[in-house]
Structure to design on (199 residues):
């Protein structure tokens, strides 16, 4: 199957020499809009430590892929933008110690109600999706009782409007791969790196 560029303007492909060059059709995820939020959040978490009981929390951080739920996209009248509302749930990993000083690990989550203005294309058969990435670092963590932990967390959230698309791009050929260098500590390393014949 060959790729067609009949839905775009060929001179805009960016080729030289009279627009004669190779063109490649690639399947990729196109980002139509993106934004970043950074905030400080005070939260009380219910942490699953299994059968253990935490006395001191050493660290709290995001773990795994966040989940977008309750997504609502409402076009804004007279604007190319839309109101994007959703709930972002971020899984957390909690590292703590018990009464004997042993390291124990727990899991929890933190949820954020998002209400943003973003560009969401309305035309097309392929419906864009909303994705979010979150980085959470819990500071000043305190165990208040058993598996209840309070934290002051530094939160960074990146929200994107994306869609899987087929793009035609200028092609300059395949990448020339360099030989991979293997890490070694063997005794022969210095010998093998020396010239084979005397100089």
């Amino acid at each position: 199957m060959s790729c067609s560029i009949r839905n775009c303007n060929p001179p805009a492909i960016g080729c030289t020499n009279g627009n004669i060059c190779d063109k490649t059709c690639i399947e990729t995820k196109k980002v139509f809009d993106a934004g970043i939020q950074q905030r400080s959040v005070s939260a009380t978490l219910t942490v699953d430590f299994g059968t253990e009981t935490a006395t001191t929390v050493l660290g709290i951080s995001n773990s795994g892929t966040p989940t977008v739920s309750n997504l609502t996209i409402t076009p804004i009248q007279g604007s190319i933008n839309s109101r994007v509302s959703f709930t972002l749930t971020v899984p957390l990993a909690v590292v703590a110690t018990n009464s004997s000083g042993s390291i124990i690990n727990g899991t929890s989550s933190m949820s954020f109600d998002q209400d943003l203005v973003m560009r969401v294309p309305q035309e097309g058969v392929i419906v864009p999706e909303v994705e979010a990435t979150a980085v959470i670092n819990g500071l000043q963590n305190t165990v208040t009782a058993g598996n209840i932990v309070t934290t002051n967390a530094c939160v960074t959230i990146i929200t994107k409007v994306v869609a899987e698309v087929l793009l035609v791009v200028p092609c300059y050929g395949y990448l020339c791969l360099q030989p991979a260098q293997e890490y070694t500590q063997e005794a022969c390393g210095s010998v093998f790196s020396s010239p084979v014949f005397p100089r």
Notes: Residues 40-164 form one domain. The first strand starts at residue 22 and ends at 46.
